[in-house]
Structures are given as C-alpha cells and as structure tokens.
Design a protein that fits this description.
190 residues; binds coenzyme A; alpha+beta; globular; single chain
Length: 190
C-alpha cells in the first residue's frame, strides 16, 4: 500500500489524535511525570489540533489509506512542535520525509531564516541527530516534561551533506529515501 504525504484534512483529526497519543504513550510517556502525561493527552485533543493546523505555518501528514501514520507541525517558520509516527510504522523514513518537506517549505518561502528549533524528547534525540539537528541546551525538566533544545542550521541539505553524513552512517540511506519520496511542487501544507 502506498504512503500519501499531504496536508491534513478535518476528517483526519480523530486518526491524528489517536496516533499521536499512541506514539506518545509508547515512546515518550515513560520519561515524563504522570501529570505531564495527562496534560499532553489533553493538549492533543481534536479541537486543539484543528486550531493548531489552521494557524500553522506548515503542517503535513502521512496517510496509509484512511489511517494517519505520521504528522509534522511548524507553528511558525522557526519552530517545529510536533513530529510523531505511529509505533507500527517507525524506521521507514516517514518522520524524515515529513520533516524534510517542512524544512524545504521554510527554505522556499522564508529564505532569510537560518535556524529551525524544537524541544526534543529523549527518545527522539537519535532521530533529530540523524537529520542534522544539534543540542543548544542541556537536557532540562519543565513541569514534569523532559526535553533538550535542538537547532538545525539551514540550508538543510547543505548542512546535512557537510555534517550529518560524517556523524551518522545511516545518513545516505535516509537521504535517498527522502529524495525518492519528495514532491517537486512547493505547497503551503502537505
Ligand atoms: C522520533 C520519531 C518521530 C521517528 O520517526 P521515524 O519515522 O521512525 O523516523 P525515520 O524512520 O525517519 O528515522 C530516520 C533515522 O533517524 C534515526 N532514528 C530514528 N528513530 C531512531 C531510534 N529509535 N533509535 C535510533 N535511531 C533512530 C535513524 O538513523 C533513522 O534511520 P534508519 O532507520 O535508516 O537507521 C518516532 O520514533 C516517534 O514518533 N517517536 C515518538 C514521538 C516523539 O518523541 N517525537 C518527537 C517529539 S520532539
């Protein structure tokens, strides 16, 4: 079955919410306090996600038929706030593709921007490192959450070629997958 990278639709909201909560419970919740876990579940309600998608600079999902198995959200051009992939579909290049499409959108539409930042969960550190992000803070705790502030210097592909390929042997395989799946046309979302 073919993966479809596109903009989120309102009909996707139940599937996105369900997938994000499942990925969070599997990969992130063990690092966070009980209260912080409950807050996260509340924050990714369908209503809140609908608002976040509507006001986002860029958002995209990966669909497998009717099911949403990945999502990325840039609330603003310099910030990524949500990168989640279904636990059943990790390590297939889905998050790399979603993030890469978002970063390319930033480069095409806000070329003056030189850095994109995010707060990474502990489990996602190897993933972001493979994409060329670097820590710009120590790991910190905030209201029961645990994260590290990371930054990616643009241009994305130049920095990956210069830095990540040496740092991460998986680089070449990941980049080939992204190149094979990327869309030639720039769009606001998807
Ligand atoms: C982090 C996450 C988004 C990665 O999604 P994914 O689709 O599996 O990532 P990709 O397949 O694109 O991974 C690309 C590369 O990143 C690295 N990587 C990804 N997950 C990794 C892991 N668990 N351990 C080590 N390296 C990892 C690998 O180099 C991988 O390439 P490879 O599979 O060829 O070795 C996913 O595990 C997830 O949803 N986690 C829970 C939510 C979360 O923490 N999100 C981040 C919030 S800041």
């Amino acid at each position: 079955m073919e993966l479809n990278y596109r903009a989120p639709r309102s009909l996707d909201l139940p599937s996105v919410t369900c997938m994000v909560r499942a990925a969070f419970d599997r990969f992130v919740a063990p690092e966070w306090s009980v209260g912080a876990r409950a807050n996260f579940h509340d924050e990714v309600s369908e209503e809140n996600l609908a608002r976040a998608f509507a006001s986002a600079f860029y958002c995209g999902v990966c669909a497998l038929e009717q099911e949403i198995i990945g999502v990325v959200l840039f609330p603003s051009p310099r910030l990524v706030s949500l990168t989640f992939v279904s636990p059943a579909h990790v390590r297939r290049g889905i998050a790399s593709t979603l993030l890469g499409r978002g970063v390319r959108y930033v480069e095409q539409h806000q070329p003056e921007i030189s850095v994109v930042c995010l707060n990474a969960t502990r489990n996602a550190m190897p993933f972001y490192s493979a994409q060329g992000f670097f820590p710009i803070s120590p790991e910190f705790e905030h209201c029961g959450t645990v994260a590290t502030r990371l930054a990616l210097w643009l241009p994305y592909y130049d920095s990956l070629h210069g830095i990540a390929r040496r740092a991460n042997p998986a680089f070449n395989r990941t980049r080939r997958h992204v190149a094979a799946t990327r869309s030639p046309s720039a769009r606001r979302t998807g």
